[in-house]
Amino acid sequence: MQTMDLSHELAIGIDIGGTNTKWGIVNHRGEIVEKGEIPTDGHPTIDRFIEALHATLQPYMQRMGADSVFRGIGVGAPNGNYYKGTIEYAPNLHWKGIIPVTQLMTERFGLPCSLTNDANAAAVGEMMYGAARGMKDFIMITLGTGVGSGIVANGQLILGHDGFAGELGHTCIRPGGRLHWATGLRGSLETYCSATGIVLTAKELLENSKEDSTLRGISGEELNSKKIYECAVAGDPIAREVYRYTGQILGEALANFIMFSSPEAIILFGGVIKAGDLLMEPTREHMEANLLPIFQNKVKLVFSELKEADAAILGASALVWEIKD
Q1: Which family does it belong to (predicted)?
Q2: Do the domain assignments include residue 4?
């Protein structure tokens, strides 16, 4: 009987973010052999975006093609519907309405394609290769341009009846609070704990305080979460308060999520976590303070063990083996 040689099989994993799209070519062992990125917001239509992605990947595919077999494409995207292969009304993307991503990808690349929510893809990647290895119950929270989440319970990714379960970033944590720039909802977690929310918090604190701050010397257009972090590390009081307040709101939200699914761990992922203890310490403090005693001091709060782009790429690529098998 002939055994199947998997060593030359490759998958393409794609993580579509609000600003950039990261891609990776992944082998069957979960090793990313090539990776890169293209702008997401630089393409006015989904067709132009897929064309740019194809033009970027084609040279790599041709170079590897003689010795390798590409089995398919896995995509993680905001508001990605696993069942239909569509992106639907994603607030952080400028392509509006329902986008038939898997159909368009298959037509352009000539490969089978599967899609899921970007945070779900990151959760799968973390479960297979990162901090959630061996866990059957955990929640992954992605803190980037927006706030996403992937929920795993009893070893299963929670998708819901329509594929959209787990939108914890859009849950209301401050009723009547800050207006979301895209959804029109008020007080959602994303408006406070995303990179965008951190900038809004800094601007509010600067407006409502007369305290000296290095942040006052940065123009509104140039103020971003990276600069706020740098000022916080340097000891700037308002910048440090931005992270304390962000951690408070995140911790309160995580307490709610813990009492919902009783996870073994909550794993934080994304660019915002580069703030380290500036974010982690207030988050842990307010998470524990808002839990019932039966949940306190049980849930691990950890940062992702994977590089920022890798979890979503690996999780997306795992969809390909699911297609094939």
Answers
A1: Belongs to the ROK (NagC/XylR) family.
A2: no
2 part of a folded domain: no
* List of residues 6+ apart from 38 with CB closer than 8 A: 20, 21, 23, 52, 53, 56
Confidence (pLDDT) at 323: 54
Asked if 123 and 218 sit in the same domain, the reply is no
- Reduce the DSSP state of residue 256 to 3 states and report it: helix
Which pLDDT score, from 0 to 100, does residue 2 have? 38
Which tokens is 117 given?
């929510």
Strand-pair partners of 76: 15, 116
Starting at the edge strand that comes first in sequence, how are the strands of the sheet with 98-99 ordered? 80-81, 86-88, 98-99
- Report how many domains make up the chain: 2
Q: Give burial (CB, 10 Å; 0-12/13-18/19+) of 111.
A: middle
pLDDT, one tens digit per residue, over 110-134 is: 999 999 988 899 899 899 889 999 9
208 & 276 share domain: yes
Using the predicted structure, report yes or no on whether residue 220 has a pLDDT greater than 70. yes
Distance, CA of 69 to CA of 79 (rounded, Å):
30
DSSP 268: E
247 shares its domain with 209: yes
**pLDDT tens-place string over residues 155-173:** 999 999 988 899 999 999 9
Calpha distance 289→282 (Å, rounded): 10
Q: How far is the C-alpha of 311 from the C-alpha of 121, rounded, in Å?
A: 7
